[in-house]
Amino acid sequence: MSMLLQKTLCIIKPDGVRRGLIGDVVSRFERVGLKIVAAKMLIVDESLAKKHYLYDDIVFRHSETVWNSLIKFISNSPVFAFVVEGVESIEVVRKLCGATEPKLAIPGTIRGDFSYHSFKYSNEKGFSIYNVIHASANEVDAIREIPIWFKDNEILSYKRDDEFEHYYC
C-alpha cells in the first residue's frame, strides 16, 4: 500500500448534525474521490470527549475555559463520526473543511459555506465555536484519534467503482 494512502478522522459536530448537514458534508468528500471507510452516529460521553480533546494540548494552545467549552459542546447532542481514506486524505480533507475559524473560511469550503462565527464572538458568548466539522490536523493526530472513535473491525476496506480498471472492446 502506498505511503500516500491515508486515513483521517472527521466528526460532524453537534451544530452540523442539528442543522441536517451530514449528507452535504459527506458528499463533498465522496465527490472528490475520497472513501468513507467507517461511520457512526453517537452521543459523546464525557470520557470519550476527554480522550479526543487532550487537556494539556488545548490548555497550552488556548485555555482551560476553551477546553471545558469543547467538552460540553461535543457531548451536548449527537455527532456523526467517520473515517475518510484516500491519497493524501489528511491534507485534502483539511482543505475541503476550510479554516478552523469560520469567518476566515473561504466560500466553497465546508466551513465557508455552512458557518460564520468567530473565535472572538464565541469567547464573548462563552460557548465553543460552531464550525460544523472536526478533521484530524495531521498524520500524528489521525493515528491517535481514529482508534479513540473506531475499533479496527469497524473500519472497512473496499474499492470504489472509479478505482477499478475498465476495459472496453
TrEMBL record:
<keyword id="KW-0460">Magnesium</keyword>
<dbReference type="Pfam" id="PF00334">
    <property type="entry name" value="NDK"/>
</dbReference>
<dbReference type="InterPro" id="IPR001564">
    <property type="entry name" value="Nucleoside_diP_kinase"/>
</dbReference>
<keyword id="KW-0808">Transferase</keyword>
<keyword id="KW-0067">ATP-binding</keyword>
<dbReference type="InterPro" id="IPR034907">
    <property type="entry name" value="NDK-like_dom"/>
</dbReference>
<dbReference type="GO" id="GO:0046872">
    <property type="term" value="F:metal ion binding"/>
</dbReference>
<dbReference type="GO" id="GO:0006183">
    <property type="term" value="P:GTP biosynthetic process"/>
</dbReference>
<comment type="similarity">
    <text>Belongs to the NDK family.</text>
</comment>
<dbReference type="GO" id="GO:0004550">
    <property type="term" value="F:nucleoside diphosphate kinase activity"/>
</dbReference>
<protein>
    <recommendedName>
        <fullName>nucleoside-diphosphate kinase</fullName>
        <ecNumber>2.7.4.6</ecNumber>
    </recommendedName>
</protein>
<dbReference type="GO" id="GO:0006228">
    <property type="term" value="P:UTP biosynthetic process"/>
</dbReference>
<keyword id="KW-0479">Metal-binding</keyword>
<keyword id="KW-0546">Nucleotide metabolism</keyword>
<dbReference type="GO" id="GO:0005524">
    <property type="term" value="F:ATP binding"/>
</dbReference>
<dbReference type="InterPro" id="IPR036850">
    <property type="entry name" value="NDK-like_dom_sf"/>
</dbReference>
<keyword id="KW-0547">Nucleotide-binding</keyword>
<dbReference type="GO" id="GO:0006241">
    <property type="term" value="P:CTP biosynthetic process"/>
</dbReference>
<keyword id="KW-0597">Phosphoprotein</keyword>
<keyword id="KW-0418">Kinase</keyword>
<feature type="domain" description="Nucleoside diphosphate kinase-like">
    <location>
        <begin position="5"/>
        <end position="157"/>
    </location>
</feature>
